[in-house]
Amino acid sequence: xxxxxxxxxxxxxxxxxxxxxxxxxxxxxxxxxxxxxxxxxxxxxxxxxxxxxxxxxxxxxxxxxxxxxxxxxxxxxxxxxxxxxxxxxxxxxxxxxxxxxxxxxxxxxxxxxxxxxxxxxxxxxxxxxxxxxxxxxxxxxxxxxxxxxxxxxxxxxxxxxxxxxxxxxxxxxxxxxxxxxxxxxxxxxxxxxxxxxxxxxxxxxxxxxxxxxxxxxxxxxxxxxxxxxxxxxxxxxxxxxxxxxxxxxxxxxxxxxxxxxxxxxxxxxxxxxxxxxxxxxxxxxxxxxxxxxxxxxxxxxxxxxxxxxxxxxxxxxxxxxxxxxxxxxxxxxxxxxxxxxxxxxxxxxxxxxxxxxxxxxxxxxxxxxxxxxxxxxxxxxxxxxxxxxxxxxxxxxxxxxxxxxxxxxxxxxxxxxxxxxxxxxxxxxxxxxxxxxxxxxxxxxxxxxxxxxxxxxxxxxxxxxxxxxxxxxxxxxxxxxxxxxxxxxxxxxxxxxxxxxxxxxxxxxxxxxxxxxxxxxxxxxxxxxxxxxxxxxxxxxxxxxxxxxxxxxxxxxxxxxxxxxxxxxxxxxxxxxxxxxxxxxxxxxxxxxxxxxxxxxxxxxxxxxxxxxxxxxxxxxxxxxxxxxxxxxxxxxxxxxxxxxxxxxxxxxxxxxxxxxxxxxxxxxxxxxxxxxxxxxxxxxxxxxxxxxxxxx
Length: 697
Hints:
globular, 17 strands, 8-stranded mixed sheet, N-(1-d-carboxylethyl)-l-norvaline Dehydrogenase, domain 2, Rossmann fold
């Protein structure tokens, strides 16, 4: 057993204690240890009941994900769970902290479950493109019912102690020393003559099952479009109603093995590690002290400012929103209230939580009102001179040690920092719209940004529930620079023969939430217009440039908010409708430019949009703007909706082969010139048969 599993006798109760820091993961050694301990407890005539408990911060954080894809070693997790469930002496799981994934399945193998107030349970396997593979789809619906079991399995969410008790997952929630209370619980069971109670013997309730499964399939089709795992989860739970437990377990295992080998699961497991790796910053030690952020300020109460303020309040950070115009400030604070109120009406936010958040958001119309902020985040229009004016003022009014952050999506953070006397305290915090919903923060390190400021902002990112990636300074940073390469080719495809709805359909079918033209209409075409006007000042005059998007904005069509952009929108409806007026405009531009329109295949659309995206990512890596390829994937998954089942653009390129991408880029370069020249890094990796992921090893 080693030191990972410890067996102690407490009178007639055997204590099996998991001790595999940090989360008591179910590695081979732990599985073997539990199996050996159960065997010893069963063979000991003096032992009448068994308590399974985790040392450290939790009961069990699940399977050891590092073993995925490796040869399986017995005893398998399902063997250990079956051993526990078949034990002739009652087995009690005593849960504190998390019991998730395989840890939850271990608890389901036990005959009884108690927890303390910290206990949480869940089946997050779906977030890795998997399903519970050790009985979760068969036991959980028998214990708590089909509908809540499906919700837990399909959402990957964790439920707390009281919710678990109400559902019947926990038999008891206790206070005080959990191990001691578990022993007393076991002794009480024995005194009452209660023995083992295997979940596999429980009757599964079939009331409204048909409607429940139909709703689950419909929800999965809408929210997890193109992903295999949700459908397999539903099918596995459905089998619990139709076949024996043994047959259901066999089907579940078959599905698990299928999924673990799939590219989708490989992609989602890649993202699991990528998100955690993004927190590790070269030159910023993990133990560097972060500054305290007790109070924040946001400059600007427009759409972005409001969203940023809500993000901070959602994370428990008091925030003052500054807007020099009282009417604009009042309207912004009212909009924040209304947004929260809609969440309450939908049931996604409790009224007391709304009240707490609103209580820590206030407004100011004078810079004097934000002087004590620990971080001030500027969220004004994307215009350099305006931002420099704001930062010059922040430099004067903010206290020493305050972090001065800009929400710019494209502009030079170093140029902004240069107007202050403290460039080491200046950093970019690029939130994505709507900021209170989107999880990504693309944090931008300036030339002089201090390691302490970086550490503080990366910690704040996590504290407010966002996913952060640190990038360097260049036009558009990582996300928008790559987006420009992607949308630029989409625009050129229109000049050459495609129409907006044709391009959007190909990209939607690939898995993106929407194509570039529908996305532009949603974001607001006037935003991109301002950025392009700024960028054109520094671009060579002979650079190919498509005028179509600019002309659409100059027609007063700014997207959904004006009812027309690339598409036409009926009042009260966000469905994009192809517009003959835009088709006429596109064909006219082709004629002006002397371009003969031709048939454009779906394959060409996909290659012309996605491969330049990857190619630009390779350039970004060469320049050191992104730390690692997986950071780019994190940015594109959380900021731009790149399909999770493909792992991000750089992982996707690795999957299909960099040689494939390089050859296609070489062909496109020959056809369309230097704008599609393969990046040297892409060429080098392709020629040596390597992957982007090899750069991180």
